[in-house]
């Protein structure tokens, strides 16, 4: 099994829409949900029962949007529509401020609220309303995860969910072994090594596997370090800055699947719109088990740097897309040079497409 991990950003949701036909029991996305979306409502005039209106800057009469409330939340519905009713893991992301830096607290307000266990439990239980979703209980040392509370949450989820996942880190799982041993064969243990190099964890992984848990074991990792910026990548060619060894090693290590961020960093959105910074393209190629990179290191150009990047990527098409079947290249053929979000979408679409196309080689 391959689990693409996504942060519920617009570019990531667009990418999943592009590859939705590739999703299956063997390719199942995991959404880290740290913000909510809401249905749009409009204010009603109590006296007339009509919509309230105002005049826009362009002089048109428009309806006044109502302030959203909890009853308007449609986050899980939106995800369900995006995956077209297919299987997905839902992980409500409690934001660990030791891990995530320089994020927009307004955008991530819900993720901060999730640090309250009662609220976290309420939101996780909502996942049970969707038969195709697998709820994730996420355990981190940064939070006071009372074992009994976690066991009770798992037991409640089992009443209405065929499968439940428990996500642990290398340094958090040992005190929760009683919970992990209680998991069923249909459940999942997501063993998250985060940014740690696989080579440095051989002993810890061996020790974990030897616990002989009944649930399916999936190794998650974040191969692209947070502190590497676009400008740090090579100008062109295969990069060594994104590790891909888990793809080759997960079976040998004793796992039945793996998951990662599809070439993206494990970060939360920052404030504002990025207008400066190095333009970067990343296209994974399974035959090399590596990402092909092109970088415009002139950070002052910002997104204009993609005017230089796109021709270089297209010049690599004969090698990276010899049969003209790549969805990522089809996206690029319909844009001028794109913005940062465009290239995030391209990166994710290419990565999932390559693993889908070659799944008999890794699965």
Task: Give a brief rundown of this model.
The chain is 30% helix and 17% strand. The protein is an alpha/beta fold and 363 residues long.
Can you give keywords for this protein?
363 residues; alpha/beta; eight-stranded parallel β-barrel; 13 helices; 17% strand; globular
Write up what this structure looks like.
The protein is α/β, with parallel strands linked by helices and 363 residues long. Helices cover 30% and strands 17% of the residues. The chain is built from 13 helices and 13 strands. Strands 1-2-5-6-7-8-9-11 form an 8-stranded parallel barrel. It has a 3-stranded antiparallel beta sheet with strand order 10-13-12. The chain has a two-stranded antiparallel sheet with strand order 3-4. α1 packs parallel to α12. The chain is globular, with a radius of gyration of 22 Å. The chain starts with a strand and ends with a helix. The mean pLDDT is 93.
Shape: globular
Low-confidence stretches: none
What is the spatial order of strands in the main beta sheet? 1-2-5-6-7-8-9-11
Average pLDDT, rounded to a whole number, is 93
Number of helices: 13
Oligomer: single chain
Rg estimate, integer Å: 22 Å
Helix content: 25-40%
End-to-end Cα distance, whole Å, is 7 Å
Helix and strand succession? EHEEEHEHHEHEHEHEEHEEEHHHHH
Estimate the strand proportion: 15-25%
Structural classification: alpha/beta
Give the strand tally.
13
Described by strand count, sense and barrel closure, the largest sheet is: 8 strands, parallel, barrel
């Amino acid at each position: 099994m391959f689990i693409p991990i996504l942060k519920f950003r617009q570019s990531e949701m667009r990418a999943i829409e592009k590859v939705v036909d590739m999703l299956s029991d063997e390719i199942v996305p995991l959404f880290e949900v740290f913000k909510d979306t809401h249905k749009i409502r409009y204010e009603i005039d109590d006296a007339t029962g009509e919509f309230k209106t105002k005049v826009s800057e362009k002089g048109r009469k428009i309806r006044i949007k109502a302030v959203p409330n909890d009853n308007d939340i449609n986050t899980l519905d939106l995800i369900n529509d995006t995956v077209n009713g297919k299987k997905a893991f839902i992980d409500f992301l409690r934001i660990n401020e030791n891990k995530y830096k320089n994020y927009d607290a307004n955008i991530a307000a819900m993720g901060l609220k999730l640090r309250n266990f009662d609220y976290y439990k309420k939101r996780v239980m909502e996942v049970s309303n969707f038969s195709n979703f697998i709820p994730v209980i996420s355990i981190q040392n940064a939070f006071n995860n009372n074992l009994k509370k976690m066991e009770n949450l798992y037991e409640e989820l089992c009443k209405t969910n065929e499968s439940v996942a428990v996500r642990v880190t290398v340094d958090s799982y040992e005190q929760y072994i009683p919970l992990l041993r209680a998991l069923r064969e249909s459940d999942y243990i997501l063993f998250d090594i985060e940014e740690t190099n696989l080579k440095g964890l051989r002993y810890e992984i061996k020790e974990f596997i030897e616990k002989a848990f009944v649930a399916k074991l999936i190794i998650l990792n974040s191969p692209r370090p947070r502190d590497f910026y676009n400008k740090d990548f090579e100008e062109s060619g295969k990069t060594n800055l994104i590790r891909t060894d888990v793809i080759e090693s997960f079976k040998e290590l004793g796992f039945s699947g793996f998951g990662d961020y599809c070439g993206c960093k494990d970060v939360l959105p920052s404030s504002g719109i990025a207008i400066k910074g190095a333009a970067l393209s990343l296209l994974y190629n399974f035959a090399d088990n590596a990402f092909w990179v092109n970088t415009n290191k002139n950070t002052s150009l910002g997104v204009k740097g993609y005017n230089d990047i796109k021709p270089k990527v297209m010049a690599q098409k004969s090698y990276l897309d010899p049969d003209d079947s790549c969805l990522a290249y089809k996206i690029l053929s319909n844009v001028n040079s794109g913005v940062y979000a465009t290239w995030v979408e391209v990166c994710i679409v290419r990565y999932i497409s390559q693993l889908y196309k070659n799944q008999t080689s890794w699965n």
